[in-house]
Amino acid sequence: MTSQRRGVLIVFEGLDRSGKSTQAKRLADFLNSQNEGSAVLQAFPERSEPFGQVIDRYLRREIDLSERALHLAFSANRWEKEQMIRDKIEQGIDVICDRYCYSGVAYSLAKGLDENWVRQSDIGLPRPDVVLFFEVSPEVARQRGGFGEERLETETIQQKVAKKMEELRADNWKSVNADGSYDDVELAVRKIYSEIDRTAPLTSLEK
Ligand code: 2DT
Ligand code: MG
């Protein structure tokens, strides 16, 4: 048997305008610049997949969905990518996700859905080796520009999501102070990346 080292699953979570998408891309670009093909960037929702298209139409206000149907669509959208994620990691390729099930849970809890129900649909997905939790102060977030046009992009929803996200912290979470310059934050992210232990096997999300 070959003992090739596995890839890692790294998730970027945080509020809108915390810089997480920028930094997820920077990490992927950095890893690929060192070793071409060693990392893939995966954003959720992945709007190009069938369930992602439904989500996209909902977010752009083209269609309506009940809160539970929307929650399941977001979760199904992760399942659309599950095999790809497992395959890459087995091949030694790092998978960097811009949002994951924690956004799914936090947004749905913020809308008042039941916690046990909400967690159910993500059980069995690969569990991230590390979740980088981007924390940005309201002042800095405000300086980074206004909210967009899509659904869910309001101050009220963001505040509720922030509170719920805070409660989801677990042992695989690392806080990133996202108030610093993009270059400083990038270095902080790289340091956390370099400390990931990839000797243990990838696990799955449990109840
Ligand atoms: P982006 O702006 O990052 O494209 O996200 N969301 C996301 C959920 O409500 N549940 C989920 O499971 C995920 C992954 C966050 C679009 C919006 O979708 C929300 C913002
Ligand atoms: Mg957005």
Automatic annotation (TrEMBL):
Gene3D superfamilies: P-loop containing nucleotide triphosphate hydrolases
EC number: 2.7.4.9
Pathway in which the depicted protein is active: Pyrimidine metabolism; dTTP biosynthesis
Listed GO CC annotations: cytosol; mitochondrion; nucleus
Molecular functions (GO terms): ATP binding; dTMP kinase activity; nucleoside diphosphate kinase activity
rRNA-binding found in the keyword field: no
PANTHER family (alphabetical): THYMIDYLATE KINASE (PTHR10344)
Protein name: Thymidylate kinase
Source organism per UniProt: Caenorhabditis angaria
